[in-house]
Amino acid sequence: MTITLRFTLFYDQEKYPHGIPNIKVEVWGKELFDPRSNRTTWSNNGALVILDYYRRYLNVPDSDIDFNAFKIAADLCDESVTTPEGKSEPRYTLNGAYELSESPASILEHMHRCIGAEPTYIAGQHGILMWAYHGPATLKIEPHQIIDTVSITPELPLSEATNAIYGTFVDAEQKYTKTDFSPIVMDKWVEEDGLEIKENIDYRFVTSPYQAQRLANLYLRKKRAGRRVQLTLNLDGYAYRPGDVVLLDLPNLGIKSLEFRVAEWKFHPQEGVEILLEEDGAYIYEDIIGKPFERPPFTTLPTGGVAPPINLAFMPVNIGDVVQGYLSWQDVAADVRYNTVNIIEEGKVIQTIQVPGERVDIAGLPRGTYRVEVRAVNAAGAISQPTIRDFSIVAPPPPINVDITVGMFSLTAAPRLGDSAAYGSTFEFWFSDKKLPDASEHEVINHTTKVGQGQFWTQENLKVGHEYYFYIRTINSYGKSPFVEAS
């Protein structure tokens, strides 16, 4: 909303002894569309303000907006909350202004922060997810759905912890002046951490001190609940979406039906669904200010026994056509003496390696798919359950990009591989003055000329104003990649 004001001031030495005064006005903003009633009327409902910003300022078409998410968020913003003075106010409102020079990303970040929400973008639609308890959980994640390593963060490290929130809001009772709100300090957490660790937050679109305190309290609780679980699911994971509350059941890790919220979701048709889970529960979202929540236990692991290794991964690295890569993992138990590594092909153990550390090089395997089992062994000889991962020895990947440098009657092609490509690979260069119908091996070999091999290639004695084509593939002792075209 843009407002134009015109003032006419007549000179008066007594009224304006210090010159032209600064003028402040209180403005009731534009009318907002409410998808719950399909009406347009004045409102400072936080979710409706953000919806209007998407539709009117950013010109996002209605087909690209998740109106159901904004309806749910608007209902939460309209909830009546009782203040310590015995009065009531809406839970979340947005009031304020911004400079047109500010970036939309920064404005949206401040708006979402001021109503305890975060933006979402799912299935091509912009939505909103409120910081609220959406449970109890109706979905469940079980071991048979997991197809890759499970990464667990049991608690927030002290270097990232916060136990006190200080900050500012715009006080409507003081002519909309930026003012400090009463800090939220968790004395119990300060005692646990050994010192006060504070963080400052600016709630620039908040005009109620109690809304600022509610937001600070909620932010502090969510940050303190630092448990994270990152995992990759099979295609069952397509059913989960950010904001869903799920029960995580991993008996082998001692996690039994704990509630988590889906924080991030990435879908890969061939690699499954990557999901980041964050600790969730009704105890996080209490409105009581300054009261620490009591967290349930994370795991119910039995005493004794050895915890299996975690974060098992295979990294392909080619060193002199001998070393094909390495396996790495992390030992959880403190008294691990060594680890046993079994390489399995078609159900049979083909290599057994005893490793004193957390890494071992892999060599001498033909091309194919293998399974590795890693077990931790402690000083008493107790053996953990295996941590399992599948990996493949395959031909090198094709270049992901080719940099072309134009010289004096010459062209230089410099291919680049991805971060996970094997070291020791080289490139094969084929050249043509005509574009091929496709980059298949048959077309390239029969209709172009092989000019060399190496990390880059310079083709000289070329004509000015003519277009030339390189066809390049990666090669090593385990095979050749498909060709890629560059011109």
Automatic annotation (TrEMBL):
SUPFAM superfamilies: Fibronectin type III. Residues 395-487 form the Fibronectin type-III domain. InterPro entries: FN3_dom, FN3_sf, GpJ_Ig_second, Ig-like_fold, J_dom, Viral_Tip_Attach_Protein. SMART domains: FN3. This is Phage tail protein. It comes from Arsenophonus nasoniae (son-killer infecting Nasonia vitripennis).
